[in-house]
Amino acid sequence: MTTQVRTEPITVNLGPQHPSTHGVFRMRVTFDGEEIIDVEPIFGYLHRGSEKLAEERTYVQVVTLTDRMDYVGSMLNNQAYMLAVEKLAGVEPAPRGVWLRMIASELQRIASHLVAVGFLIQDLGAWGTPLIYTMREREKILDLFEMLCGARITNSYLRPGGVFMDAPEEFWPAMNELLDELPPRIDDLDDLLTDNDIIFSRTKGVSILTPEQMIDASITGPMLRAAGVDWDLRHRDPYDYYDQVSFDRPLHTAGDNFARYWVRVQEMRESIKIIRQCEKLIEPGPVRPEHDDVPWLLRPPIGDAYAAIEHSKGELGFYLVSDGSISPYRCHVRAPSLINLTLLRDMLVGELLADMFVSFGSVDINMGEVDR
Amino acid sequence: MIGLGLLKAMRVTLRNALKTPFTIQYPDRKVGISGAAKNEGKSPVGLIATQPVTAAKAAMSMYSVPVNIPQNRRFRGNEFTWYEDRCTGCASCAKYCPLGIIEIVTSPGGFDVQEGESYAIDVFDIDIGRCMFCGLCVEACPYDALHMGSQFERSKYERDALVIPVDELRQALRQPSSWFRPQFEERDYDPFRDGANDEHHSVGRHEKPDQETLDKRWVEER
Ligand code: SF4
Ligand code: SF4
Fold it and tell me: Is the CB of B136 under 6 A from ligand 1?
């Protein structure tokens, strides 16, 4: 005899300090039994007013603020901001500086994807160990950053027109060693997770987003590529010297949690390829323009500029308006984390309680960037 | 095939389980008798004979030695290194700090026949409780007087104790980091290997001119 269990919707408040929320995030979730029937994301708890603070800092000082937006991808943030400043001020960057910042940002992309993959597994319930597998490699990348610029997370390495200082000689052997070490580690990750039946059954077919939905919500990055849309700014609208390097763009068609994870793992391999090419193409020379061309107190002409890069999370853009003074009149950030989060309700409604944080984690958001 | 993926995953786990841990114990590490003996500068037998209490402690893993974390020379640590003899009190560092946490007060310090008017630094306080170690102040210093330090262990119980006053800066151990100081890297100076560098002439972008050049510049040309 089967009995129909009558369930009632129950609304649960999660956060703003829930450990699985990847930051200070709050969700008001309504469940019917195990099933999610409504989600209301509430954010803003980490708002530090970076855009406003930028209005009273000089163009170079704002670099330190960009570090703190997405703190697992600070090099990429630096790069996007510098591209905007260069466009605004008409600065011709120094070639060696550009190669160096490409290397740095690709290393950062690997580190950022490692974090995303590690925390996805953590959200699936595998506490600790798989996360440490990915953190181990990330630590080595952060060591390289310490060599480059003396800091691991808040780098402030880039300057208008290049980087602040050339890479020290010990950087190149250390980087090559890491690049040799990384592919087997990524294979390990693949062995550990990609063919794993448990991962399959937990992530396949969960939180599917269609390309149309995502394009309407202007979602970018690995999320979009996981649904088969070939949109990568490094390829579509090459900035820096990305038109001189060749790389594949891994695409998956499913658009579910597994596809998002898979695209990230494959992109790490492509980043290694790009770094290897950069290393071949880099030539000795100055790493930033002369002080007379790009003074410390940069005064760009009146106007505005928007520059975007392919961040590890999506399209990161900086929109700067100059009134001819030493600090931006307005600085707006197109933060991929925030925009990728907009479809959270569509992703979660109809899914189960246990998959909630997996889906949330698979967006790979960073609250520092969402709230800025 | 169902299950094959799991076996593959198990293989990776096993392979990693057999490796030595990659974590570093900090701030100190427990060592056994041999490690303790090495730290005390004795042979294990000598340690047991002369310091039985220490040896017993070590045998019960209660003896620890400090660990030096490998660091890179550009490391931006929180003990600033400042050479008063190089500092002119121009306050460029204070102006370039995005947070405005450097306080400088100067007063006319008299007249130097060779250098002209000089300023005495009365206050040079860095409130590192709010500092983010971006290093922009170091980048701005035109006379290479201010450097990032290489130490980082400066935890305090009170916020106010985090301000580095000028007297402390004067007496601090000077281990400048090579962040934005290419001259250190050209000379292959590594604060972690070479230790303190108290000689203010050697930290600038230029070599110290010899006496002959100085005489020529200051005596003959005037
Ligand atoms: S390191 Fe940065 S925040 Fe700290 S005193 Fe220097 S400029 Fe200011
Ligand atoms: S430390 Fe450098 S920038 Fe600061 S007052 Fe002294 S000389 Fe000027």
Answer: yes
